[in-house]
Each structure stands twice: as C-alpha cells, then as structure tokens.
C-alpha cells in the first residue's frame, strides 16, 4: 500500500515545489505545512487525482487548521458531553459545522468509488492499488453512512496532517539554522535519488535528520497510558489502574538520555549509531504495542517532501538557534513566535 501512496505523495511534493517558486518566503511555515500535509493525506487516502475537487480540498484544509483550537475546548471541559458541547458551546458548534461542511466532499468520492467498482470487496481483495477509503467501504454494517466514514477519515487526517506538518516545518527550520547539515542532505539526494519508492528508502541521512527533528520537536508532547500492574519507580509506586501522562518532550530532551540534547545531530540516528540509544528514550512515534499505526506512511511522506524541497531550494531563516523557538502544547505541539523560512531556488 505504501508504494501505491508514494506516487501520489511525489506528485503532491511537485505541486509544492511550484508553489514555493512563487511564494519564496513562508511567514507561517507551520500553518502552511499543516495544510499541505492535510491535502496530501486526503488526496492519497481518497484515491483521487489532484484535479478532482482540489481547490475545495485546499480550502477545506484551511478550515481544518482551526479544528484543533476548537476541539481543545472540549478537552478542557471534561464534564461536558460531546453532544451538549457541539449543540450549545461556540467552539462545539464550530466543530459540528466543520464536520457538516466536510461530508459532501466524502459523499462525492464514495459515489464515484461505488460507480467505478461495483463489487468493492472484490476490488480490494484483488487490486494492488487500494486506498484507505476503499478499506472503509468494505467494513459494511459497521460504518453505515457518509458521516461515519468522514469521522474516520478526519480522525486519521487530523492526526496525520498536524503531526507530519509540524515535523516538516520544524525540519526545514532546523536545516535553515544548520546549513552544513542541509548540504549533507542535498548531497545525499543528488547521489541517491531517482523517482522510485526504493530510492526514497535509501535516503538514510535524510531519514536520520527527520528522526532527530522528531526528538527535539516531538509533535505530541504527551502520551497517555493506563497502568495494568503496579509500577515501582523507587520512591513512588504507580498503582494498577492509574492513568498517567508521559512527557515525550522532557524524555527526549533529558541530558541523562541524550548528550547535548539541544544540539541538532542527525548522526545519532544513523544505522551504525542506533544501538547507543537507550530503550524508550525516543518516543517520536510512541512505542510498544500502541505506537503510531501511520508511522511508515508519515515517514515516507516526509522523506519525499524533504528530498524534493532540498533538491530544488536552499533554505534560510532569521533564526540562529533552537532556543529561539518558543513552544506551546494545544493537542499537539505549536510554535508561538513568528516562524518564517525563505526558499531560494538552487541554480
């Protein structure tokens, strides 16, 4: 399935190159790449071409960028049920409107899919080019209408676009701050890259750059877990049944886990150095049996995008150090201060 998505992701990155040639400067790189990741995810998972409802989809992505801010209102009101929140609270009404506005897009795609493939189950079982919505349509009675399918898609899309968009934007800022590392990525791309999925998988240094970006700027600063047994922490015991929050942000910047934790050093994640990483000191995609199910898809999208952008542009920024970036957490991590990047076409 990843190979099926690759061609779509590559085309999306080519569209991105054309946009950056005109924009040259991104004054809010985080919002821009959140929308880019959202659109890319929907195009690949819906199995549509870039010309199909693409303008509307981009506008829909802009609406989605406000979605987390609205949803945060529900998280901060744990004693209010989602139904009451959506009906009576302004933020809840905004989320409900977002969902209602999105359903027609999905309904149109579902209609097209059913028209193309009379027997969707047979198509999924025998085709090499299956996308997420094809799989959702095979669930049958468990997902009965467009709204339920849209809810499933938006769950995946929001998680994918916010996290992937944040990491991409952070990666480009880090490469701009560290031009020597940017040139290493550029050289690897020139030496390795073609236009196939196998070429992308061979970008080991570029992949290490993304892992190191995830370490310094984890898009999800906290993950929640429930203890199934008593856990002895030395002077304290977490009792079975207790819920706890694990700070990936602090673990991945802890000097007892990482030498010079605020130094951007992708070499930490090169294959020959990975044995030095302490178990569970890196939680970029979580870990264990409940790690991120979309990590392979996310890494492929990010590597494809970074490779195409760095191959075509030299990236600069006004920032001089990592410490200058001020962070806050909504549901995912955000950068508070203005975050601009400049993209100068390579000659």
Automatic annotation (TrEMBL):
Keywords for the protein's UniProt record, in alphabetical order: Endoplasmic reticulum, Heme, Iron, Membrane, Metal-binding, Microsome, Monooxygenase, Oxidoreductase
Subcellular compartments: Endoplasmic reticulum membrane; Microsome membrane
Cofactor(s) named in the record: heme
Amino acids binding heme: 292
Function: May be involved in the metabolism of insect hormones and in the breakdown of synthetic insecticides.
First-listed, main subcellular location of the protein, grouped into a coarse class: endoplasmic reticulum
Keyword Iron: yes
Family: Belongs to the cytochrome P450 family.
Gene Ontology cellular-component annotations: endoplasmic reticulum membrane
UniProt KW DNA damage keyword: no
Lineage summary: Eukaryota, Metazoa, Ecdysozoa, Arthropoda, Hexapoda
Entry-linked PROSITE patterns: CYTOCHROME_P450
Protein name (Swiss-Prot/TrEMBL): Cytochrome P450
Cited Pfam families: p450
Matching InterPro entries: Cyt_P450 (IPR001128), Cyt_P450_CS (IPR017972), Cyt_P450_E_grp-I (IPR002401), Cyt_P450_sf (IPR036396), Cytochrome_P450_Monoox (IPR050196)
Any one GO MF annotation of this record: heme binding
Topology class, membrane: Peripheral membrane protein
């Amino acid at each position: 399935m990843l190979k099926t998505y690759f061609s779509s992701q590559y085309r999306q990155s080519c569209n991105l190159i054309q946009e950056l040639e005109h924009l040259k400067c991104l004054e809010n790189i985080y919002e821009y790449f959140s929308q880019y990741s959202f659109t890319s995810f929907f195009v690949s998972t819906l199995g549509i071409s870039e010309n199909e409802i693409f303008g509307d989809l981009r506008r829909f992505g802009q609406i989605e960028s406000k979605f987390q801010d609205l949803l945060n209102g529900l998280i901060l009101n744990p004693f209010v049920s989602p139904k009451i929140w959506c009906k009576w609270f302004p933020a809840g009404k905004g989320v409900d409107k977002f969902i209602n506005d999105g359903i027609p897009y999905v309904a149109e795609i579902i209609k097209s899919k059913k028209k193309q493939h009379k027997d969707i189950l047979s198509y999924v079982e025998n085709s090499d080019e299956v996308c997420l919505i094809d799989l959702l349509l095979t669930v049958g009675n468990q997902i009965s209408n467009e709204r339920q399918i849209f809810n499933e898609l938006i769950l995946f899309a929001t998680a994918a676009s916010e996290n992937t968009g944040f990491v991409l934007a952070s990666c480009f800022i880090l490469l701009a701050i560290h031009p020597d590392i940017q040139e290493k990525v550029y050289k690897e791309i020139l030496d390795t890259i073609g236009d196939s999925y196998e070429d992308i998988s061979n970008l080991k240094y570029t992949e290490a750059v993304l892992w190191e970006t995830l370490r310094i700027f984890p898009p999800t600063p906290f993950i929640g877990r429930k203890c199934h047994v008593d856990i002895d922490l030395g002077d304290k015991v977490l009792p079975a049944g207790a819920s706890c929050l694990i700070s990936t942000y602090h673990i991945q910047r802890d000097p007892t886990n990482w030498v010079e934790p605020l130094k951007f050093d992708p070499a930490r994640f090169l294959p020959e150095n990975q044995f030095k990483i302490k178990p569970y000191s890196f939680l970029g995609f979580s870990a264990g049996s409940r790690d991120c199910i979309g990590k392979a898809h996310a890494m492929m999208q990010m590597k494809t995008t970074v490779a195409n952008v760095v191959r075509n542009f030299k990236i600069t920024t006004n920032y001089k150090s990592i410490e200058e970036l001020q962070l806050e957490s909504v549901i995912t991590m955000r950068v508070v201060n203005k975050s601009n990047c400049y993209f100068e076409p390579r000659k």
